[in-house]
Amino acid sequence: MTRRPFFLYVVELLILYTAAPGRAQTVFQIGTKDKLFTEFAHKHKPGDPVVYRVGQSSPAKDWYAYQPGTFDYIVQHSTRNQDWMNIPPGTEADLTGDPVPVPYQVNFDLSSAPRGKFLLELDAMLVYGRPAAPRYVVEINGHSGSYRLTPHPASELWWPTGGDNVQYIGYQALEMALPASYFKQGSNTLNVRCEDGFGIFYDALSLRNEPSGKVPAVVSAAVEPTVFYKNDAAGLVEEATLRITSSVPLGRKTLRVKIGTTQVEKIIEQTGFGDIETSIEVPALDKPVPASVRMAGEGSPLYRGNFTPQRRWRVYAMPIEQADFGYDEVPARTLEFENRYIDKALEITKRYPDYSFTLDASGNLDSYLATRSPEQREQLLVYLRNGKYGLNALYEPFLTGTVTTEELFHELEYALKAGKAHNFPVDSASQTDEPSVTWAFPQILSDAGIKFYAAGSDPIRGSINPIGLLNFHSPFYWEGPNGGKVLVWSGVSYRDLTEMTWEGWNQESCKMGQYHPSLLDWNARYRSLSRSTTAWIIPSMRSSSTACTMMRYR
Fold it and tell me: pTM (2 decimals)?
């Protein structure tokens, strides 16, 4: 009798185990969950359909790394497309030959009548210059639904994904539960699209079947706090998000939310499966309280848990402008631009006494005092003395690694002398649009009495700052060779606030801002601090632009 190798028995057992009735079975998987998109095709020609046939196609030829969203098509008609997002890999010319947005299609067969629960799983990377995560639209054999992607910050992916002019990097792992009634024996067609946002880089897309599983109409429900507070007639309230995820369209339903002693009723309408979100306002709380969500006509609650209020950030935004000497214009004209900015700042402060401003460089003060009237000069000096206005101790922004130690000290000379002559403090310095700083700098700043340093790096031509993820470690003390140190805020870019708010504060911009990695990270890392802690964010403006450059705590 011939004895069979042991490993053959193991293989057969594994096959029987995975194919046994009731066990989860993989219908298809496109790509590998490795947080890379190198296995996918990178050369999609607009106008060509994207069709993946399970069992015949391969990711390297038939599934593309980047699936555009509706915003990509809007950008293609703009001359500022690089300000919105980097050009995706392999995109040829423009996207006008595609449907808007381009659907990606998967064709697959089921050998038997579908039973139980199907799980469509998406793993994707979102790499943006500006934050705009899309809705992921799913159509399976004529049944349609959508899910809002809410990626978590994934700063570790900055370098592997390229990084140039990128400020928002997130990762999304989404599991979509679908009933067997959406599928059929034989040929099935799945279409997916990205709408109401930019596109995604695929890590993997897969479909599994659990024949013995069940799919409830409401898959999940939650009521979640945000970091947004506001005052209304009843006092301070926190904005909360009510989120329902369904496997079938719910139609028009009434939801009753209870948070502590507060009860809120909300009507929702859903025409397709997936998730639906709505905002509610909750009186500001000081501690976690029980929370529940019920649907009218249902006996059991959809959700029961705790509502933990988020930390109340007190944010101070201090405007500062920046114009490149010799880039925007020749240096002499650039200084006059800066003088006019200061003129305007003084006018604003006269009208709005709470307004503050920071001069981008001490060279601006030198120019202003030499060209303006005695009244204007004195008004600026008064604001510098009383702390309403601030001054960058550096004479001009520059690359610190290209000069000598003596020149570094000379950069601080004018500000220190002016502060002593006119009796105003000089304790901070900043660099805008310079991508690197020499290690000698904290030593020199400390020796000169400078306590604070802010850096808004160049994210386009020298985007090396995010490699060390310094924005996620900010604020931190930077120590020089001799032990001298300064408190540093290092931004991933000098355009953080501009990109986060899409060039201006409004309700929709703020909603987009909640996906900003740094904002999420601050909230996660500092929520354990005392609620009386104050966050100081000092933004920098490049002409009409703004960027987060520093945060202090007291």
Answer: 0.78
